[in-house]
Each structure stands twice: as C-alpha cells, then as structure tokens.
Amino acid sequence: MSRPVIITCALTGDSDTPGKSPHVPVTPEEIAHDAMAAAAAGAAIVHIHVRDPQTRRGSREVALYAEVVERLRAANCQALINLTAGMGGKLLFGPGDPLQMAAGTDLVDAATRLVHVEAVRPEMCSLDCGSFNSGLGDEIYVSTWPTIRAMAARIRELGIKPELEVFDLGHLVSVLALVDEGLVAPPPFVQFALGLKWGAPSDPRILLAMRDMLPPGAPWVAFGAGREQMPVAALSVVLGGHVRVGLEDNLYRSRGVLAANADLVTDAAALVRTLGHHPATPEEARAILGMGTSGQAR
Q1: pLDDT tens across 150-164, in order?
Q2: Which of 46, 106, 242, 248 is deepest in the core (most CB within 10 A)?
C-alpha cells in the first residue's frame, strides 16, 4: 500500500566537511536557506546543527541556533525543526595517558546539552541513546545512561518530540528502557545510524534485527553514511521506515559530483515515489509521529 514517507534533511552536522564541499552551509543564514530549499524539495523535517561562522566548526552557541530558527519562523517554514542535542559529548584522550583529556574535548552534563533546546523550543530534538567509539582516532562520544535518562525526562517536560538516535544494537536497549519508564511520549521515533565506522554496519540483516526489536507501531528511519546513503534510504522505505539524507552524512549526489542539500532531498523524493509511496507533508509527519498540530508531543 502507498503511504506517506517522512524525509529528513540533515543539513550540516559538525564534522570537518566545509573544506571538502562548498555546498555545506556554515552561517545561520546559509543553514536557514538550505533548510527552506530542502523543505521546498520535499523534506518534512530539517535536522539542524550550527557552526561557528569564523572557525566553521560545530558549535553549541545558543545565539546561533536562535538565529537559524528565527529566520525559519520568519519565513514561515512549514517543515518540522529538529535541533541536535548531541553536542557536548566529545571526549578525546591525550597520547600515552588515558586519564588525560586532550584538547578538543567538549564534555558537558545533560542540562547543558539542552540549553539551546530550552531557549528555542523547537518541535523536535535528537537524543543520542548510547556511547560509542568515533572513527576519528582516540575520540569517544559519551552518552551515559543517567545522561540519557535525564535528557529524555526534560525533553518530555518541554513537550518536544525526541528523535532517538541508535548507533549500535545496545543503544536500542536504552530506547526500550526509556519507553518502559514512560520517559518518551508514544509513539517513540527511532533513528538507526548505519555504516559509521565502529557503529552498526549498513547490513540488511542488522536493520531487520533492529526494526524487529521496536515496540509495535513505532515509526523509524534508517540512514547510511557516505555512498551508502541512497541504498539505505531505499532499504528503509522497503522495510517500512522513513528516510534521512543530507550533507551531514554524505557530500555527493553521484560519483565525483558534489551535492547540495536540496539535490539529495529531490533524489530521495524521487526514490520514495519510485517505490510506490509519496513524501510526507509536514502535517502528515506530525500525525505519524504522534504530535499535535501545535507540534507538541502528546
């Protein structure tokens, strides 16, 4: 049966990608512009990190998030605004001494990771449901169970819909525990990140196992990194899930051809239609995610 498929566009991330592609948005104006273009191309959700305009590195600066969201609201952006809450979990070790944190570490508590979310009040935000080894040398992303639980509780108090991020199978156990404790408003929306180094591989058998662990009726999405972006998007739709694309995960439209965010959404929308479905409108996405017309999680 034909169904609405939510397309999320992850616009910029916090990796060192602006030096690899001129299309990666950096300033609040560029990020907001890309969000509007992605929405026009068929994205029902825009997932937003911000960057320091001077260094072009990922940032937790509240004013930058506020400027992006203000620009989108002023432009009457209909897509659901989904802010990352994953910044502040970066732990790097110095050479030789595993107890010595290295320069570049950005490790803060649960409340600090949500400061911009509290200030801006988007409809959605991400919640990383476990720690994992990064593919970047001696770097670990830290998301302990007390942190996850505290963030989930506060996100629910704020009436914001969390996108529950799963980078490996064990993270899904955390998701199920959050659901059991009532810390996530039903239905839980789960995102499987596949193909990242040291995380869950983009293997159909892995995705099936993850999907089958979900509570009945839980909406979900899988995305693949790099050249696996569109194959995983197709697999996700075929297996009943939704789609995420964008320059946070992949810089190319085809081999050797750099993409803009709107290009990737255009291709994802064509893929969804080819598979017999249609890109969900923002209102259809809100209904699928169990959100009221105000955008608040029920």
Answers
A1: 999 999 999 999 999
A2: 46
Give residue limits of the domains in the chain: 4-288
Written as six digits, the tokens of 30 are 């560029």
pLDDT tier for residue 100 given thresholds of 50, 70 and 90 = confident
Element counts in the chain: helices (H) and strands (E): 10, 18
Give CA–CA dist 223/187, Å, rounded.
Answer: 20
Is 1 within 8 Å of 12 (Cβ atoms)? no
Bridge partners (DSSP) listed for residue 51: 58
Task: Give the span between the Cα atoms of 180 and 226, in whole angstroms.
Answer: 34
Closest C-alpha to 278, from 2, 1, 39, 38: 2
The answer to whether residues 262 and 134 touch, using CB atoms and an 8 Å cutoff, is no
Angle at 287 between CA 153 and CA 77, to 5 degrees: 90
pTM beyond 0.85 = yes
Please return the burial class of 198, using the count of CB atoms within 10 Å of its CB with bins 0-12, 13-18 and 19+: exposed
Find out whether 100 and 66 touch, Cβ atoms under 8 Å: no
Q: Where are the beta strands (DSSP E) in the chain?
A: 4-5, 7-10, 45-48, 50-51, 58-59, 80-83, 89-92, 106-107, 124-128, 132-133, 139-141, 161-166, 189-194, 220-224, 242-245, 252-254, 257-258, 278-279
- Give me the mean pLDDT over the 251-262 stretch: 97
Q: 């999680």: which residue's tokens?
A: 297
CA–CA separation, 162 vs 127, rounded Å?
A: 6
Residue range 4-288, CATH number: 3.20.20.70
